[in-house]
Design a protein that fits this description.
The protein is mainly α. The protein has one domain (4-279). The chain has 16 helices and no strands. The chain has helices at residues 4-24, 26-35, 43-51, 59-66, 71-75, 80-84, 87-106, 113-128, 142-147, 155-180, 185-194, 200-203, 210-222, 234-250, 253-258, 260-279. It is globular, with a radius of gyration of 19 Å.
Length: 294
């Protein structure tokens, strides 16, 4: 992968950890507990934080827009999360959670010139996502839902919200690419595991049981995409490469709008915070997104 797709993927890899702080930071779990969520595990707060921009939706809507989670797993948390706290309250508290988490990670620098500059650049890119083709196959997906939220005032919260818009915008395009390749949600995960994006055990977090996973693997074998041992065939690797390329192409529009000088400057500004988030040990070393591998 060379040229623009590589640069687009670089931006995703830089921004994703800055977004994902919300799902792992101890300050975020404290705020979720204060709302009334069970924080013994992370899924109740995860579904609330991420689905809140959609409004008080039911399980079917979350299954569709999140794409990779088993319906039974989603149903254990949605719509029950809205009985604990209304989406508008979740949205307000998630910004407070990010504020506390970022201040714990970065200290007073969140109010400094580098965060202010990074926030302005990231916001320009995020605002361009509204007109991207990637949102058209999923017009009511997570990208448009987050794009429609008001912008916070504090630069570090603007940066987090821009990262969120851009990653969900990319996710909507990825769902379109997977669907276009004829991969259903569980096949999407099985085929991704087959190219070594992460171990099968990591993908178990999405709630698909062994029987469903095995059936999907057999379907992919029948299509010549996986071998008997679950690894991808040449055709399977080619198909996944096409999915990833289309995803990067659809995610490129905001970065074209920002321009190469702006994108390069944002890379410079994000490298330090990215290293600090990764170095904190907060995020899992292996993830279902395949960051660092694919």
């Amino acid at each position: 992968m060379t040229g623009e797709p590589t640069r687009v993927r670089q931006m995703w890899h830089l921004l994703e950890p800055l977004h994902a702080v919300l799902y792992y930071a101890p300050e975020a779990f404290e705020e979720a507990a204060a709302l009334g969520y069970d924080t013994e595990g992370r899924w109740s707060s995860y579904f609330a934080w991420r689905a809140a921009p959609l409004g008080p939706v039911g399980a079917d809507e979350v299954v569709r827009t999140f794409h990779s989670y088993a319906p039974e797993m989603v149903g254990r948390h949605v719509p029950a999360v809205w009985a604990t706290a209304a989406p508008e309250d979740v949205l307000a508290v998630r910004l407070r959670a990010v504020d506390r988490s970022y201040r714990a990670l970065f200290g007073d620098r969140v109010e400094g010139p580098e965060f202010t500059e990074a926030a302005a650049l990231a916001r320009r890119a995020a605002e361009a996502a509204r007109t991207s083709r990637a949102v058209q196959p999923v017009p009511d997906g997570l990208g448009p839902a987050n794009s429609g939220l008001p912008w916070p005032d504090a630069p570090h919260l603007v940066l987090w919200q821009a990262a969120t818009v851009l990653r969900e915008h990319r996710g909507d395009g990825h769902i379109a690419a997977l669907t276009g390749a004829g991969l259903d949600p569980v096949e999407s995960l099985v085929s991704f595991a087959a190219v070594g994006a992460a171990s099968t055990e990591v993908f178990a977090s999405r709630g698909w049981g062994a029987e469903v996973w095995g059936a999907a693997l057999r379907r992919l074998q029948e299509r010549g995409l996986t071998a008997a041992d679950g690894t991808a065939t040449g055709a399977g690797r080619e198909l996944r490469a096409k999915v990833e390329l289309r995803t990067d192409e659809e995610a490129a529009v905001p970065w074209r709008a920002l321009g190469e000088p702006g994108r390069e400057r944002l890379v410079e500004l994000l490298e330090g915070p990215w290293l600090e988030v990764i170095g904190s040990g907060m995020l899992p070393a292996e993830n279902t997104l395949g960051i660092g591998k694919v």
